[in-house]
Batch of 2 targets.
Target 1
Amino acid sequence: MKRIIYFILTFGLFTTSIYSQDVITKKTGDDIISKISEITQTEIKYKKFDNLEGPTFSILKSEVLMVRYENGTKDIFNETTNQNTQTVANTKTSIEVVNNEDMAAKGKEDAIANYRGAKSGAGWTAATTILLSPIIGVIPAVACSSSTPSDDNLNFRDRDLMKNSAYSKAYIDQAHKTKKKKIWTSFGISSGAWALLILLL
């Protein structure tokens, strides 16, 4: 009897939990389990259901397919968007472009400041060129300069910044440029040293 009562109570709590939440279904098919606080002309404001005391999030209505409320009712949003919604979306896109440009500039700047070309292959290139000849030395130079620096050698200072795609791409691209410059500078100097050794010998 106790087990039956326990089962009924547990089932009741589970059922209450399921139906006390709002579900926002995006046009991508993803569901957001939430507690909706406000629906404006252009967006839906909500809190995540597992953190009701946390921050309020918002999503554009143009990105939402349907909302199922805790009382069982639902709203379906059609494909068409009004002019105000389109303006908001365009503004958001413009802000994202500006932010990405800023992050890319910072990524490039940080790469110049922090990346020093550690383990770039410049040493192997120089040794091969001096010991064997520039013709042989060009092989490791091409091989090493064609690959981007590994994560262990990037020497970035902030792991969170590297999670931003614009920042990380700019950082890695600049680091790769620095790596190539170091390798080919090493190749040039070692080729000169090889030629000097040949003349001396």
Note: Residues 165-200 form the longest helix (36 residues).
Target 2
Amino acid sequence: MFDRVIVGVDGRPGGHDAIMLAERLAAPEAAVTFAHVCGAPTAAGRVGALSLPLQIEAAERMVGLAAKDSGLAAKPSVVYESSVPRGLHALAEKGRADLLVVGSCHRGLLGRTILGDDTRRVLSGAPCAVAIAPRGYAAGVPTSLGLARIGVGYEDSPGSARALEVARSLAERHGAVVKTLSVNPPQDDASQELAAFSAGVDLLVIGSHALVGFLFSGNTSRYLARHARCPLLVMPRIRSDTLMRAHERRHREQQRTPEPAA
């Protein structure tokens, strides 16, 4: 399903959580990149400029070790960019990635996804699907035991149809069952229903930014990223030209369908 995967690593627990989740979601022969974004030097002036090569060298060593120790045939990559989300988005666009996996902030309640600013901003404007691993996912909390139950937040929209398609593909690979939760406005109630629903599944899949409807707004995605009790997979927005081609294809199929005999 996901053939080109980028995993954000930083040498902290959140990066290990992201690696574990990427192992669950990446296709068996996926091209996986472990990426670390080096920001601007903490020191100013000449001292900061001199420290940059050392910072990049340390980052390359850290990412290389993470790739070597993982269960994935991953390629290490270090990006120099002042913004972590901007660096990851640029790398995803350049590599035409279909999945970006990040971990949550290491602070917070056990098993709860607590977002730092960087993780929260990764959701905004990402060029591909984004998966967020909850705190402690790699350390053996219940959500890290496998993907036996995959949940889908569903409304009648193309984004929901795509989320359900992805969930079924992952379920087939993992021998899992798919559970759906149909939700209706208002948005706040839907977000809370989905957060409660996430406690009974091993992965929650939702669409993003539907052109119609309410569920897949940025606010809902961010709420679930903060409150979901399992990993969250947010599918990218379906572009209007893609929707137009899908409508045209369905119309052609309907035109070819013979009328039933009287």
Note: Helices lie at 13-25, 45-69, 84-94, 117-123, 158-174, 187-197, 218-227, 240-256.
